[in-house]
Amino acid sequence: MHDSHFLGFGLGLRTPHYDYVIQERPLVDWFEILTENYFVGGGKPKYYLHQVREHYPIVMHGVSLSIGSTDPLNTDYLKQLRALVAEIEPEWISDHLCWTTVNHINSHDLLPLPYTQEALAHVVSRVQQVQDFLGRQILLENPSSYLDFNHADMSEVEFLSEVANQADCFILLDINNIYVSSRNHGFCAEQYLEAIDPKRVRQFHLAGHSDYGDYVIDTHDHNVCDDVWSLYRKALMHFGAVSTMIERDGNIPVFEELHAELAQARQLFLQTLELDEVPKPENLVLHA
To answer: Whole-structure pTM over 0.90, yes or no?
Structure first.
């Protein structure tokens, strides 16, 4: 297990909570930032980020790498990314296994890939180029999806695993996205978890979604539901100690409410790790 990379339990750093975090210094182990929000040279976002960074580890989570696009890699974007990494010194960098740009226009949507051998070779090559440019490994997050392509050579989880193995990158495993996609496409969420090599997983996301019965949309505007908590427990049993955070991007509550929800994750983690069959890293330390 990757005990040296276990950060504990974190939250997404959001604008409504800047002042609270700086003034109260809540017992949170780390914060995740939305990378592109801090590409500006200065101003309030960067000021607050540096204030938070003085007291907490930071991880960076992007939405515009567009690793699956057929457009050339955006060198200007990568230069901004590398500069922010040097400035903030995050624990790691992540983005999504998707594409967002076409003809150099950013759709601002995390669009799904066809799970073919051709797409796999394309993505692996681009991940390797990005890692060489940054001088470090990245994490890729499994997407939430709503449609299938007519042709596929493999399943989503097989594609994700092959990208990680062939490109030698890590995985940000979004538990809510697995649940959402399993509902939309009818696959077994547990089997998805079991198909992933624990050595490749460095972070978990937990979030809420909108459930419309026949389909589910990943909206990040509700609390984590019982089914996702249950899937998180199963993920802990398979992967052991993995840094965990809660994403909230809509209907953002007061900080204390999110903090209480994060405490649920911590408590479930501690209860699950007491089981004999759960992998336990050596020298496990909960930072807060």
So the answer is: yes
Contact 247/12 with Cβ under 8 angstroms? yes
Beta carbons within 10 angstroms of residue 210's beta carbon:
14
Q: How many CB atoms lie within 10 A of CB 121?
A: 12
Which amino acid, 250?
G
CA gap 59, 67 in Å, rounded: 19
What's the CA gap between 110 and 133, in Å, rounded? 23
Residue pair 258/32 in contact by the 8 Å Cβ criterion? no
Query: Do 73 and 129 meet the contact criterion of CB atoms below 8 Å apart?
Result: yes
Q: Which of 163, 155, 148, 223 is nearest to 189 (CA)?
A: 155
The residue ranges of every structural domain in the chain are 3-273
For residue 141, the cross-strand partners are 96, 172
Q: How far is the C-alpha of 202 from the C-alpha of 212, rounded, in Å?
A: 31
2, pLDDT greater than 50: no
Nearest to 135 by CA among 92, 72, 164, 199: 92
Identity at 42, one-letter amino acid code: G
Query: Which CATH class for the 3-273 domain?
Result: alpha beta
Q: What are phi and psi of 164, to 5 degrees?
A: -65, -40
List all residues 6 or more positions away from 199 whose beta carbon is below 8 Å from its beta carbon. 1, 2
Q: What is the pLDDT of residues 131-160, one digit of tens each?
A: 999 999 999 999 998 888 888 899 999 999
Q: Produce one character per residue of 84-117: b if its CB has 16 or more CB atoms within 10 Å, e if not.
A: bbeebebbbbbbbbbbbbeeeebeeebbbbebee
